[in-house]
Every structure is written in structure tokens, then in C-alpha cells.
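Question:
Write out your own:
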Amino acid sequence: MSMIRDLRAVVRPSLRKSAPLHNSYDTTRDPSASSAVVDCAVYRDGRRLPETEGTCRTPREAMLQVREDGGFAWIGLHEPTEEEFAGIAREFGLHPLAVEDAVHAHQRPKLERYDDTLFTVFKTIHYVEHAELTATSEVVETGEVMCFTGRDFVITVRHGGHGSLRALRHRLEDDPELLAKGPSAVLHSIADHVVDGYIAVAGAVQDDIDEVEIEVFSTPDKGSSRGSDAGRIYQLKREVLEFKRAVSPLLRPMQLLSERPMRLIDPDIQKYFRDVADHLVRVQEEVLGFDELLNSILQANLAQATVAQNEDMRKITSWAAIVAVPTMICGVYGMNFKHMPELGWTYGYPMVMGFIGVVCFSIHRMLKRNGWL
């Protein structure tokens, strides 16, 4: 019996190795369904290897080719489901926690190491064009790019309708010397691409803030509602907060990639991460400045609204004081007494009306001179 158990122990692993992976990506998908794989390529010496017979290789085929001939595989996915990603995760030995984060998204920017794989999360920012900034305008739209980096593979998982890496892949393919550095060169290029997007969005947000600032401190038109910009300022502040949530957490991972030696990062590529970290620091300072500036603009706007209300109250009070004079005099003469001064005098009425006019004019002139009217 012990000999049979030993024989089974030898035979079963060989059967598992030779049996096809029925749960891998290319065997479980319905051929008629749309694929989550955007691109799948193998690179050796910085150049993309051509696909066999003009057909796009599957992730499994790419990994087998890498193991046989060397190089590395770069697989790009867009919003894969758990079933679509399960086979790829098993094929490349990805950690279940990282796989769960990549599928469900909504993660903070971070850098984690699982055995011989680096898992990096980037928040992408897209500036939403708008003709006019309103209290409900969407200024920035966020997405995510997750990157699994191993010794011989890069897997990018993108969430959101923007942040495509197709143009980045083409630029890298046009620079074989850089692409020959391996998966770490791809990771750096993605980080640099994301941070460059931050810089472009920061410039556009700065224009929106300048526009709001000019309108807040400009002379309001007659009939315009002073303090009506508070809604737009608050909305812009919320969008800047979303921007800050994407930028600030990414600073620490970029510093680690640029300062701490890692086996999966080429030493020559590590120097380039310093440049990315410097750009990220600059963007972070700009975003923090946006937040402080918007706080100041919001406070100034509220102060202007308070001052405008005080001016309105002074005007109302001034007119109430003017109206109080004829009200008091007319109230006195409206009493039903027989013996009142000047009731029987012919010029009594014109004298009272003239007296009311003189007093009201004097009060109006005094209030006007003091800036109440």
C-alpha cells in the first residue's frame, strides 16, 4: 500500500502539470463575448515579438513564450471581472488580496510587495471640460490603474473611461533601449504618465480658481445676488479634495521606489523615479495651495455677503427713520381732540406738511453724508 501511495504522489503532480488549465483566461471565456484584455505582448531586448499567424496571443501563451524564450510579457486589462482575472492570477501567481483590490478597484494609491511581485495602485485624474463653472459642475474625474510587476511580466488593470495606456505602450515600443530594462521601465513609464496627467489637470484647475477669484472680487452688477458664488466655490473645493486624495497618498510609494533598493527595480530605472517623485511633490504643493486659496476665497465671499447684508440693513434703517417723522406727526394730528394747535388756522396744513418735508430732507441729507444711504 505504501508503494501505491508513493506512485500516486509521483504521477498526480505530473498530470496536473501536463493537463490544460481549464480555468485560465483563454479557455473559460465565451469566444463571442468581449474581452477584458486590451493588449497582450511579449518583449525581448526592448522589441515586441510578432504574434503567430497575425492573431493576438492569450496571456497564457505569452507567459509560456516568455518562459521558453526569455523577455517579459505586458498584459493590459480594462475592468476585468473576477472570472476573467482568476485564470491570469493563477497563471502568474498573483496574491489573492492584490487580485481582489485590482478587480473591485476604489483603492488608495499604494505600493505593496507580495513575494516576487510589486503591486502598485495609481489614481488617474481627468479634467472635465465645461463651458461655465456652476455649483454642480464636475471638474475632475478619477480612475485607477493597478500594476502588477514581476521579474518577467507586467499586468496593468485599468478602471474608468479615461487613462488609456495605449499611447504609452506605443511610445515605449519606439524606445527599445528603455524598454530593454524590463518590467521596471514599464512601471516607471506608467508612474510618469500618471503624474504628467496630474500636472496638466492642475493647470486647468488653476484657471478655474482664477476665474472664480476674479468674479468674487470684481464689482457686482446691479441686481446681482452678492454671495451667490459660494456654491461654485464649494463645488470646486470638493473637486480639489478629490484631486488631493489621488496625489498625496502616492508620494510615499514614489519615494520608496526612488530611494529603497528593490530586486524588481533596475538600478538605472530607479534614478528616474526620483524625477517622478519631484514632479509629484510639486503637484502636491499646488493642490494644497488650491485648497488654502479656495478657503480664503470662500471666506472673502461670505464676508462680502455679510457686508452687503449690513449695508442693506443700514439703508432699511435709514428709510425707517425718515418715515418715522411724518408717521409721528400724522399720528398726533389724527387724534380726535377738539382743542389742538392750528386746527382752525388756514395755513396750518401747509405749515405741517412743509415742516415734515424739511425734517425728512434734513435727516436724509445727514444719513447720506454719513454713508448710510
